[in-house]
Amino acid sequence: MAPALSTQLQLSTTVEFETVSNNASSIYLMATITAPEVEDKRTPVDVTCVIDRSGSMSGEKIALMKETLSFMVEQLHDNDKLSLVVFDDQVDTLLPLTNMTAQSKVQATKLIESIQVDGSTNLSGALFEALDICKGRKVANDVGSIILFTDGRANKGILKTEDILTGLNGYLKLMKKPINVFTLGVIKNGLD
Known about the structure:
Blueprint: E1 10-15, E2 29-34, E3 45-52, H1 60-75, E4 81-87, E5 91-99, H2 102-113, H3 123-135, E6 143-150, H4 161-173, E7 179-187, E8 190-191
Parallel strand pairs: 3-4, 3-6, 6-7
Antiparallel strand pairs: 1-2, 4-5, 7-8
Protein name: E3 ubiquitin-protein ligase
Pfam families: VWA_2
């Protein structure tokens, strides 16, 4: 049986000197507050990352995106699932929806590090591929999400934002379970 978790804040103090004279004007005190441990239980998630590898993502942008994705992979639990879809002119699924065991995390991180930039931006093709992956889940976790990492506008496939959104919304209505779609804009000095 696991030990009971504390629900109380704990305060500890350390003073600069063990004893202080009556005429001391000030002393330093360090206070440390320790919060109770929180049980790390949450609903398992299915995450499909859609990753822009077009030529405009070179340099800092691709490095930041790889770092962000690798951090995200480390936060996933064994019963979470991850899929990686990359796109430039072409759309490729690097990793099908896979439970994130320790071994799978190593594989996902290696795949992320192997991404090379080139070509145009077929954003619509990549989003629809991600939706196909979500729709094809045989055993779906209750929370399904698509996270789009990109720095710009589509210049291949469906180009108009309104048309992409119309297609996306139509596709989402066909899903048996809801899918959340998030976008992270990768800009020169960070994520937007």
